[in-house]
Amino acid sequence: MISNEDENIVREYLATRFDKVIHEPDGNVSPDFLVNGKIAIEVRRLNQQFRGAKKTVGLETDQFRLMDAIRRKLSKYPLDKTSKSYFVTVSYKRPIGKLSSIVSNLEEAINKFQLAGEPIPYSCKLHQNVQFEIELERPIRDMKYKVGIEVDEDSGGWVVDTYAKDTNHCIDEKVMKIQSNYSKYPEWWLVFVDHIGFMASDDVEDIKQCLSRPEHIAKILVLDIKGIEVLEI
Predict the structure, then answer these.
(1) Under a CB-based contact definition with an 8 Å cutoff, are residues 164 and 207 in contact?
(2) Which of 157, 148, 140 is nearest to 121 (CA)?
(3) pLDDT digit string, tens, across residues 138-178
(4) Residues 6+ apart with CB under 8 A from 83
(5) CA distance 20 to 37
(6) To 10 degrees, what angle do helices 59-74 and 99-115 make?
């Protein structure tokens, strides 16, 4: 069983179209799959990128770090029989800042909220780019606070522009990784699994106009998270 979610999606897609699909034919190096003994296939998640001053990283890198830290801290406040419980909203944009400072500010904010008699709505900044709000009282089993809404202000944007920039980033990244291995197999494909998630069918041709297939890459495919092909160049 393949542990990588995106590779599993691609494996199932390939298995319906080819007789022989081998995962990692050369071990834990490129390519991810070899099809019919000749087509080398590299897989990557297609995700939105944050382009910082020093590097480009997927949005989920900071998203997971931040939200996991906040959820862990909120879990430290158990619900007792007499207390109310609340859904909270966390809004953020990058750069996120130090998690230790954000968690410390969250603890201070909750203490102030409780000492003030739990007035809602209640709002404060945990960091210059991280906003914390308590707006809704609702019964929550076993917890006093739970994230109800998460707003990533860097996510979204113009569909064609977003897909063009991030798909080209993925292409460039993969080509850099595999170009020294081109001679190992006669044909190379790139297959991306779309986790951006807002491409419509009538956007496809416009997006394709913004993409180019590098030399030595025979095909580039984009699959949705159900394994359905949505774009080919």
Answers:
(1) yes
(2) 148
(3) 888 888 999 999 999 988 888 999 999 999 999 999 999 99
(4) 144
(5) 7
(6) 40
Domains of the chain: 5-48+157-232 (3.40.50), 54-152 (no CATH)
Q: Specify the DSSP element, H or E, that contains 147.
A: strand 145-152
Can you say whether the dihedral through the CA atoms of 65, 67, 70, 76 is positive or negative? negative
Q: Please provide residue 110's backbone torsions phi and psi, each rounded to the nearest 5 degrees.
A: -65, -40
Query: ∠174-180-183 over CA atoms, to 5°?
Result: 110
Strand partners, 181: none
pTM: predicted TM-score of the whole model, two decimal places: 0.76
Contact 32, 10 (CB under 8 A): yes
Place of tokens 């297959």: 191
**In the numeric block, which tokens belong to residue 130?**
């991280």
The answer to whether 39 and 25 are in contact (CB under 8 A) is: no
